[in-house]
Amino acid sequence: MSLPQIGAEGQQRLYAARVAVVGIGALGSVSAELMARAGVGYLRLIDRDYVSLNNLHRTALFSEADAADNAPKAVAASKALQAVNSGIQLEAAVTHLSGANALELLQDMDLVLDGSDNYELRYLLNEACDQMGIPWVYAGAVGNFGMVMPIIPGQTACFRCLAPTPPPPGSYPTCASSGILGSVSSSVASIQATEAIKLLLGRTDNRLPGLLSIDAWNCSFDVIEVQRDATCPVCGQHQYEQLGHDSGATSSALCGRDEYQVLPAAPADLDLSAWAQRLRSQGDVLVSPYILTFSDTKVRFKLFADGRMMLKGAQSADQALAIYSEYLGL
Ligand SMILES: [Zn+2]
Questions:
Q1: Using CA atoms in the order 23, 25, 30, 36, what is the torsion angle rounded to 10 degrees?
Q2: Continuous H helices in the chain
Q3: Which residue among 129, 175, 232, 235 is the active-site one?
Q4: Residues 90-109: what's their mean pLDDT?
Q5: In the 3-class helix/strand/coil scheme, how is 174-242 assigned residue by residue?
Q6: How many whole angstroms from 121 Cα to the centroid of ligand 1?
Q7: What is the pLDDT of residue 269?
Q8: CA 157–ligand 1 middle distance (angstroms)
Q9: Of 5, 56, 207, 223, which shows the fewest CB atoms inside 10 Å?
Q10: Is 129 a catalytic site residue?
Q11: What's the rounded Cα separation, in Å, for the pair 14 and 84?
Q12: Taking a C-beta distance cutoff of 8 angstroms, is the pair 312, 258 a contact?
């Protein structure tokens, strides 16, 4: 409140604001923490994943105990942030944001922060936010590089203007191929959070006027102007390819690890205790309110209440789908 740019009135605006953070990893956990500490009154933390030991170098929100418990990142982060600020509301959504649920999960938000790690999810966020007129702040970090761009529907270029087509898989660095420096993702998330605060305060005149591109190792910061493309299918023509799609059961490799995620054709609401009883005859089972962990001589998987599975031991996405139906038959 002492900052002239914010003041008591600005602080009240932050408290009245509702922000979704999509992906609570290296970026999202830091920007969510900055939002909670800044007093943003309502935070919805959306993440499909659980805490692993190798996440701990790039976030202060998770502990070794969270990793040992296989705690979902959204749940562990909201518990940690509620302990930091008991005066705000935190909601954990342990789910995979998809074309089928994006509008429902984001519709009542004032702002969305991108903490994701892939193009597919950003195209989806871009479409959902364009359709609902919600500003969002794109952020990405890999290796010692980072990028940030605020995207305001009707005012700025959108993510599709910036990246008209997704690059072919394997042609760009990922956290799997290049790693990520924890100090870089924290820096990028801090800039993203600063842009978020400006947008929530209505200070669009002060916003970052394009794409900020950072090379932290060479200490170079560039702001690149991004023009709106009148022919852009999203912000120009409001045609959406990702929204509302029900693509059937799908399987994809997870960035940075030898693991596949299988999504059921439609979200489920599984009774994990009942599934634990059923699977106990086939292998070792551990169950928590959020995740069932199974292992036998062939595979190891984690099953979430929404029907998703993350599994190790598959050689391909197709084999991951086959294992899913072998064990669950859903
Ligand atoms: Zn566009």
A1: 50
A2: 7-16, 28-38, 64-68, 73-84, 102-106, 119-132, 159-162, 175-178, 182-200, 272-279, 317-327
A3: 175
A4: 94
A5: CHHHHCECHHHHHHHHHHHHHHHHHHHCCCHHHCCCCEEEEECCCCEEEEECCCCCCCCCCCCCCCCCC
A6: 16
A7: 87
A8: 5
A9: 5
A10: no
A11: 16
A12: yes
> What is the C-alpha separation between 187 and 206, in angstroms, rounded?
19
What domains appear along the chain, each with residue ranges and CATH number?
A: 7-224 (3.40.50.720), 250-327 (3.30.310.10)
- Residue 22 CA, chain-centre distance (Å), reads 3
**Does 330 have pLDDT greater than 70?**
no
State the sign of the Cα–Cα–Cα–Cα dihedral 313, 251, 140, 3.
negative
Burial of 211 (0-12, 13-18, 19+ CB in 10 A): middle
For 53-63, write each residue's pLDDT tens digit.
Answer: 988 888 889 99
CA of 101 to the centre of ligand 1 (A): 22
Own/partner contacts of 247-254, CB < 8 Å, gap of 24 or more, are 247/99, 249/321, 249/324, 250/321, 251/317, 251/318, 251/320, 251/321, 251/324, 252/317, 253/317, 254/49, 254/310
Structure tokens at 262: 């299988």
Q: For tokens 């919805």, what's the residue?
A: 44
Q: In the numeric block, which tokens belong to residue 22?
A: 């999509």
pLDDT band at 273 (very low <50, low <70, confident <90, very high): very high
* 172 CA → ligand 1 middle, Å: 21
pTM comes to 0.88
Tokens at residue 11, please?
């602080």
For the stretch 239-269, pLDDT in tens is 999 887 666 677 777 766 788 989 887 778 8
pLDDT per position as a tens digit, 147-204 = 999 999 999 999 999 999 887 766 777 666 678 888 999 999 999 999 999 999 999 8
